[in-house]
Amino acid sequence: MQRTDRISIHTSADRPAHAMARELYEAGPVPTVEFPGGIVVKALTRDAELRAALTDPRFVRGIRHWRAYTEGEIDTEHPIVQFMNVDHMLTANGHDHLRLRKILQPGFTRRPMEALRPIVSAILDELLDDVARAPQPVDLKAALSFPLTVRVLCHLLGLDAQHIPEMGEHIRRAFNQQDETANAAVRTFVTDVLAEKRAAPDDRILSHMLTARDADGAPLSDAELTANAMLLVSAGFETTMGALTNIVRALLEHPEQLAAVRSGATTWGQVVEEGLRYDGPVNTLGWLFATEDVHYPGGEVIRAGDAVLLCFMAANHDPDRHGPAATAFDAVAAHQSHLAFGHGVHHCLGRPLAELELSIALPGIFARFPDLRLAPDQDIPEPSPIMNHPRTLPVLTGPA
């Protein structure tokens, strides 16, 4: 029998991302969920079903495949609708997706990422010095996670450091889904930056996009340039900032895991992978759209034209995939591959960048501050149905 209960998609101090993920998982593999403002969609909460959908040709990307959207049943100005109503690599299908990915891929392969290593290390050292001088407690997210990831992204894309505060605030509001003007502000910001690059190009990714050609020799259209630049700017730091903040917090909340990596019982690479699985920066992400009815055991059906929310954290805590301790943080135990970077042809383009930054920053932080610990007062999570990280991470750096 198909379930009719709706799970509310929101987080708060009383309902952090882990609690929402648990509710989603317990509601079944294909529950009905509702966003604030009355947007009702289906969801995939289990690892097997989510992986299958990400490689199933019956599911496609692009909001024009959403029946409720095309038939005027939902508010097109709703923030979650505006957030996904863009045409970029993440929402493209088939040939269009492959064409865009081939243009953007070269800037994110292992070789250019390794060339970034000394730059990431230098920025990290500078920020660690700032943290050491800061009054206690210090917000490690604001003092290190945010500036590190944003400055690295600015270097990679060719953004001036003066853009950092404006860019970060626009993107934070867009991901929080509480401001109808946020997505327009990000678009305006990116349009202005691209105009600057046209006037004064450099050898970085945004300038490359302006002159890039696909296999047929065609350039990106103005709309494609803007939308894909928005994707790179928005996703290029927010997820890694969240991952770094979350993994530091997880290690401080689980001192036995920190002791294990310090003793060599596990590696920093395993800590990164387990941290991404246990407390990844993406809670949920839209959207897939069904092109025909898809039936599931137990009677659940995703109807043609339905929008489908991808519940990555719930799936990463799936005991069928990760064992009975799936909701625990254990970097020593062997876990199956996670979904923090997605799956299938749309897997995260920025994975090498994120892994590089995390592999440098985490050991650097704990080597510099061996007595690092959480301050007594911890803040509430960001009120985002998409992202998962705390508003702040207050820590003490000196000896207890």
From TrEMBL:
Q: Metal-binding among the record's keywords?
A: yes
Q: Which organism is it from?
A: Murinocardiopsis flavida
What are this entry's molecular-function GO terms? Answer: heme binding; iron ion binding; monooxygenase activity; oxidoreductase activity, acting on paired donors, with incorporation or reduction of molecular oxygen
Region of interest: Disordered: 380-400
Q: Which domain of life is it from?
A: Bacteria
Organism placement in taxonomy = Bacteria, Bacillati, Actinomycetota, Actinomycetes, Streptosporangiales
Q: Which InterPro entries match?
A: Cyt_P450, Cyt_P450_B, Cyt_P450_CS, Cyt_P450_sf
In its UniProt entry, what is this protein called? Answer: Cytochrome P450
Similarity remark: Belongs to the cytochrome P450 family.
What keywords were assigned to this record? Heme, Iron, Metal-binding, Monooxygenase, Oxidoreductase
Q: Which Gene3D superfamilies does this chain map to?
A: Cytochrome P450
